[in-house]
Design goal:
Structural class: alpha/beta
Shape: globular
Distance between the termini: 38 Å
Order of helices and strands: EEEHEEHEHHHEHEHEEHH
Bound molecules: adenosine-5'-diphosphate, magnesium ion
Radius of gyration: 18 Å
Number of strands: 10
CATH superfamily of the largest domain: P-loop containing nucleotide triphosphate hydrolases
CATH architecture of the largest domain: 3-Layer(aba) Sandwich
CATH topology of the largest domain: Rossmann fold
Strand order of the largest sheet: 6-7-8-3-9-10
Largest sheet: 6 strands, mixed
């Protein structure tokens, strides 16, 4: 079966600085992939290029059988790619429920054959808020949320677009161990419901609990891609990242 996501030879420069150098990344439908690497290694830039927030100069991105090359972010979201941002980006003057309603109205309802009624949209918002543990905060503003609730809202905003692929960019930084376990559990639940997930994270306990495969970026290059237990014992990975 062809992969859900197939990135080939992706290259991105910022001026003269090579941020990504010939990245290949293939992700099968239903997989849970961890993406790790030092700060500044190009992880978020790779996400931005895959999702259309940035345009790569070199290489190709195929998703769900279609070329995404040159397409803007909103079209890629429409086609089923979603991501959460490292720094949450909710609509600050809207409640939690309203934040979830926006992707349902403008992305899900815009897909061919979808004509969700207001009641159906409300029901999907409520289900999603419940799934991420924000049901009781549905009518609160983002500023009333704790840090972990804010991270859950950020993931739920991405999930509200009902994606095939979710990319979670550092959803756990600054959280306590039990909050980290909570988010890992949530991501695994989403995966069990059929969502393919790429998780970017520094917290290795979370990475190892989550990942079926591990990919390592260092200075814009992919240096490892394989079984988590093999990758974390790879001397090059230890030298460039894990042993730091
Ligand atoms: P990571 O997510 O792995 O920490 P990033 O992808 O954010 O790394 O950044 C990779 C490199 O590209 C860093 O050196 C960063 O400073 C640089 N970079 C990222 N975004 C931009 C940008 N918009 N303009 C210029 N340089 C950037
Ligand atoms: Mg980053």
């Amino acid at each position: 079966m062809s992969p859900l996501l197939d990135v080939q030879g992706l290259g991105k420069r910022f001026g003269g600085f090579v941020a990504l150098d010939g990245i290949d990344l293939s992700v099968a439908a239903g997989e849970r992939v961890g993406l790790i690497g030092p700060n500044g290694s190009g992880k978020s830039t790779l996400v931005n290029c895959m999702c259309g927030t940035l345009q790569n100069e070199l290489g190709t991105v195929q998703f769900d059988g279609h070329s995404m090359n040159g397409l803007p972010a909103n079209i890629r979201t429409h086609r089923g790619m979603a991501r959460s941002f490292q720094l949450p980006r909710p609509f600050v003057s809207m409640t939690v429920a309203e934040n979830l309603r926006i992707p349902l109205l403008y992305t899900v309802n815009a897909r061919p054959g979808n004509h969700l009624s207001t009641a159906e949209i409300d029901a999907r918002c409520a289900d999603l808020a419940k799934l991420v543990g924000l049901a009781e905060k549905a009518n609160k503003l983002p500023r009333d949320l704790t840090q972990v609730e804010m991270r859950k809202l950020e993931l739920a905003r991405a999930m509200a677009a009902e994606p095939k692929l979710l990319i979670a960019d550092e959803a756990m930084a600054g959280l306590s161990q039990s909050e980290i376990n909570d988010i890992v559990g949530l991501l695994i639940t989403l995966n069990e419901r059929g969502i393919t997930i790429i998780m970017i994270e520094h917290i290795m306990r979370a990475v190892m609990a989550f990942s079926q495969r591990l990919v390592v970026l260092v200075s814009g290059k992919k240096i490892a891609d394989g079984k988590p237990e093999d990758v974390v014992n790879n001397p090059e990975v230890i030298g460039a990242y894990l042993g730091q």
